[in-house]
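In the laboratory, one determines a bound structure by crystallizing the protein with its ligand and collecting diffraction data. In a computational setting the workflow is compressed into a single prediction: the sequence and the ligand go in, and a structural description comes out. We illustrate the idea with zinc ion.
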Amino acid sequence: MKALVLEEYNKLVYKDVPDPVINDNEVLVKVMACGICGSDVHGMDGSTGRRIPPMIMGHEASGVIVKTGKDVTIWKSDDKVTFDSTVYPLNDWFTLEGLYNLSDNREVLGVSPGTFKRDGAFAEYIAIPQHILYKIPEGVTFEQAAMVEAVAVALHSINISGLKTGDKCVVVGAGMIGVFIIKLLKISGASKIIAIDINPKRLEQAKNAGADHTFLSTRANLAEEISVLTYTRGADLSFEAVGKSDSVNIAIEVLRKGGKTILVGNVSTKVDFPLQKVVTRELKVLGSCAIRGEYEVVLDLLKAGKISVDDQISVVAPLSEGAIWFNKLYKKEEELNKVILIP
Ligand SMILES: [Zn+2]
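The predicted complex, in structure-token form:
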């Protein structure tokens, strides 16, 4: 088969590789679309240490089943599917507690951090364990299905936030995940959605996604502005979708006493932390990791037309041009949201 192989750091080559071999509990999926994730772009140069070459990246994908292992019962050839980016063990303590996204020995598709290596979906075919598959409903395209992973990450942060109808929410960072958080908050009952970003173009995006108010993060009296919009109390919830000191501090700064911030972004390994503010205002700080089964709901919302993802797809290009698009994303020459590659 053809695949986009990371042969060495910063060197992607479109070439022939052996077809994947499936285990008894796996299906072979013919990949129809695979999105380039920010973590792939950062992984390409070796800076994250999670894409050790040679390997095939790609974990935001969709396709059609072409072969099933002998222990596969509910899936059959021609089924249109998308799949979780995490391959989790079924007999793990955390999985059995309903926390599969935190299970020990879980692996991520298209990731190779040294402890495991799993080839991803920038290829014509990929082997997928049956328990992480989701059926694509009628009316949802393969490109849209390749966006489900990103929406599911956003939905997971809302699901664990304890959001109540009428909550006033701040979203810090209006990149793709931030935009999906805004869209989902809108249909989840938040009464006020305030977006904050360093980039005016992203704030425009946030507004189109349903934010009621937008502010540049450089604004001097940010906390006061938020206070005015929240009966002088501050936000009930804030979602941080960047992962840097400045944005984490804003997410904490805008909360009311007793409020909660949900940290989704994780670009930095460490950030400055306003300890006294968190302690004296009894703030709650919660991390949100990946996805815990939110795929099905997102696919339902897409089918029902209750959430849109097309506005976040900037480019659909052939996989053979993958290296070109990776480089554009790496160099940030132009404002690109999702680039989807088609094998
Ligand atoms: Zn991703």
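The CA atoms of residues 195 and 214 lie 5 Å apart. Keep in mind that any predicted model is a hypothesis to be tested, not a measurement.
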